[in-house]
Amino acid sequence: MFPHFWIDKTMTKNLFQISIVFLLFILLFGQSFGQALVCKKSALTALKPIPKLAYECNENLTESDDEVLTQANRRKAINLYTKTLEKLTYADWWNADVDDLSLCDFRKKAGALTKEQKSDYEGGDYFFKLRGNSRFRVIIARDPCYQTGFSGMNVFLLNRVGGKVFASEIIDGFYTRADFPLGFDYAVNGSETIIEISTTSGGLYPTETFYYFTIDKKTKRAVPKMLFRDNGKLTNQIYSSMLLMEPEDYGLPPKSVALAIIKNHRLAKRFYVFEDVFEILENGNHKLVKTVFKWNGKFYE
């Protein structure tokens, strides 16, 4: 609890944003948070430079204009970039842990991070552009022209089959206020692997959007997995307000957890989403309402 002294609105907003930064880091990189962080020699040797997405910006468009997304030169650059990612076939890079690779990409040499480096790494000064495992890799590429003030980016999924890599752009033109752009998980459902990409908006009242993909058997590239029926339509995306405090602080039942769709690499039988109904509770928080989604054998509804 905070001592009983006056806190203005600006200070309150900053405290919330700081809390969001630490919460997101714990959620995405919880195993290393609070521990000594070391760039291992093996990971440094396996480290490969991830290409940067580049194309010429249209001077007649602002960085927040959605028309940027449809520019012909941008689409051409993304197609070429996707093909370039398929050259990342190095076995040592794929076998290395992605967190170890990120640490070495940040430090640039083997050894433990200093106290100052650790603070920068965990505090949002490093752009995490790699997630995944030894089968799937997620590449997060900054977009040079779109939503540059909000970390505008494009997300690509690499599928490793034997000695080949098949790349796909899975999220186009994503942007966020959060310092840690996304998380990765997967579930095995029968013979199918379902990939989960979790994102957050950041900001004072953050929201979460989860995306789901599967691998097309013919092309070996990622395609949307229509996992949810919402308002009568099938979609591969699901949205929820994000909790920064205890569920009871938002008028929710105790132990309520949003978007717990994958557990131990299996699909849950049910999960919850929270929606802001724009009603202010006595404690000053926004009231959230819980909705239950249940698995029917094919999708959630």
Characteristics of this structure?
33% strand, alpha+beta, 6 helices, five-stranded antiparallel sheet, 301 residues, globular, 22% helix
Description:
The protein has helices spanning 9-29, 41-46, 72-85, 91-95, 98-107, 115-123; strands at 38-39, 111-112, 130-132, 136-142, 153-161, 164-174, 182-189, 192-200, 207-215, 222-224, 228-230, 233-235, 237-241, 262-263, 266-267, 270-280, 286-294. It has 301 residues and is an alpha+beta fold. The protein has 2 domains: 9-225, no CATH class; 241-301, no CATH class.
Strand content: 25-35%
| Main sheet properties | 5 strands, antiparallel
Structural class: alpha+beta
Count of helical regions: 6
Oligomer, anyone? single chain
Mean pLDDT over the full residue set: 89
Q: Could you spell the SSE succession in H and E letters?
A: HEHHHHEHEEEEEEEEEEEEEEE
Task: Give a quick summary of the entry.
The protein is of the alpha+beta class and 301 residues long.
List the helices and strands and how they pair.
Layout (H helix, E strand, L loop, with lengths): L8 H21 L8 E2 L1 H6 L25 H14 L5 H5 L2 H10 L3 E2 L2 H9 L6 E3 L3 E7 L10 E9 L2 E11 L7 E8 L2 E9 L6 E9 L6 E3 L3 E3 L2 E3 L1 E5 L20 E2 L2 E2 L2 E11 L5 E9 L7
Antiparallel strand pairs: 1-2, 3-4, 4-5, 5-6, 7-8, 8-9, 9-10, 9-13, 11-12, 14-15, 16-17
